[in-house]
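Entry for the shared binder. Reason: the reviewer on the internal report wants the predicted structure included alongside the sequence.
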Amino acid sequence: MSLPRRLAFLLLLVSPATAAPNVILFIADDVSWNDLGCYGNAAARTPNIDKLAAAGRRFDEAILVASSCSPSRSSIITGRYPHNNGSASELHQPIAAHLPWFPRLLREAGWYTALVGKHHMTSDKLAAGEQPQPAPFDLVDSGNAPGNKGGHATWVKTVQQRPKDKPFFFWFASLDAHRGWDADKDWEENLYGPKHDPAKVIVPPYLNDDAATRDDLASYHNEITRFDYFIGRVIAELEQQNALDDTLILVMADNGRPFPRAKTRLHDSGMKTPFVAHWPKGIAKPGTATQSLISSIDIAPTVLSLAGVSVPPTMQGLSFATILADPIATPRKYAFSEHNWHDYEAHGRSVRSEGFLYIVNSRPNLAWQGPADSVHSPSFQSLRAVRDAGKLTPAQADVFLTPRPVAELYRTDADALQLNNLIDDPNYASVKAHLAKAMDEWTEATGDSAPSDLSTDSFDRETGDKLKLKEHDYRRTPAGWDKGASHMNAPGPR
């Protein structure tokens, strides 16, 4: 597409005079980027998502700002970095009350908005002089029903019962694949097909390849297949209503798989998300994947700009609408991510750019063993047994490593699992210096900080058992709190 034609196409995308697309955001719970079929996982069974990717746009460099449930979702909905959301940078904590949620802006512009499934987002108490914000959603529904506790039982009903005279935005958030493995308990083979065969799952090199781990991974893949099935049901309903062509569908996850060296990690297994966009009337060169970098805080400004709704100055993300028109468009050069408190004390930061990942850790004396649900899992306990026997591989040993490196550097294009730390390699000294400078600029611009009194552990690091503590015993100062970061809108390098 020539430059003039490309610009004309983009104007059509964002022009308020043009009919804006409906939008559905499907969010999986705890799914890593390479656990879908369209990302090359031969053991995955995700035919509906794969079809969306084949007819839409698969993003190969979509990066979360947090690999942690509520902080990730809170940043998606505000378009802000976790530490700029107030105490919401930490698990289960509320978003600063003055910050707008993008579905509320759509609703005020005449859209019908619904959240069905997992919510996990709250607003903090109002400060003196602040006014309560209008509700962001017309409908909030748990999405559960007898025989289905995955949050997606009423997705189709929501599509069917929507007002037909309004554009719509649906936040469809599954509880698949959060641990508990409800899909195993509620499995319906006539709907989802046979359960996954443990013998056929792919075991990452940082896990122990034994029966317990394979069973664990098979149950995880069952959850993903069930998530995919209900996406297919929604697609079929949109086709029945002749609404599919006019609907932008986005499929992603809030964080990495709930296994060691994934969920909460700054490495790709934790922070890189599957991200598929489908919009027959709005995506040029459908079926062409993109390697352009995007951040999860880019979703809010993208949806608002496509809807013709003004993007508020609080949002630090960038619209990626240009990538829908041109898969080689590059609106973003850097993607920053955070590792804050999630069951355990932690403070890590990362920046990705041009095929490199740079990580800094202000708590190197603490292991990054993963969140409590992962630690409590058969997969982690299997690794513990191998560790105690003195038989861990270097990749597996990283799960328990302490002290950790203060800084890490990886070539993600050549080292997809990030097992070869290049931080001391003189051949990459200039890359290290460049990314360290970008990190410093971002830290200063956004008001990030590492308080000395960060929140401490609330679970046992070996067993995943909850410690006998009250919240005030471990909850301390969130990152950026001392800098007033929730009132800072500067995005830093992008």
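Summary line for the report: The two ends are 26 Å apart (CA to CA).
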